[in-house]
Amino acid sequence: MTSDTLTVLAALAGARLKKGGHMLAAAESCTGGWVASSIVSIAGSSDWFDRGFVTYSNGAKREMLGVPAKTIDDHGAVSEPVARAMAEGAIAHSAADVSLAITGVAGPSGGSPDKPVGTVCFGWARRGGATDAVTIHFEGDRTEVRRQSVIFALQGLIERLEGE
User: Fold this and answer.
1) At residue 95, what are phi and psi to the nearest 5 degrees?
2) CATH value at residue 32
3) pTM of whole model > 0.85?
4) What's the confidence (pLDDT) of residue 163?
5) Which domain does 23 fall in, by range?
6) Residues 6+ apart with CB under 8 A from 121
7) Count of domains observed in the chain
């Protein structure tokens, strides 16, 4: 998928967020701000995008998003509980009412038998509402894993905003 795909998805997410009167915050680890970069490439995104958190280290996840150390210790940084905590922390530490979070193993190293390279966990949250999380395994090199993660996160956001 090309960067044009990212632009189209970011614009569609923005239209849905704006229509619903929502503000978005993004909490990113392995994607390193790629979601935020895709979003701010859309003119007028300040109407619906509050901020992005790049929390690559465990310390950043704890300090910037309030992810409990115990959650990281018990489940690992690449886990659905951490993705949920990141998504909820992005809302708690912003003016946003909708968030998405990404944490994963982009490679080429860092994988394990339980969490091989390409394992990425996603979280989506709403202020005062439910938090969803899912784990996906992507194929490809580091750039492809990261790109597919951004696409999946934006698609997941759009799906969760449908009907508004």
Assistant:
1) -95, 5
2) 3.90.950.20
3) yes
4) 74
5) 3-161
6) 78, 79, 80, 82, 83, 102, 103, 104, 133, 134, 135
7) 1
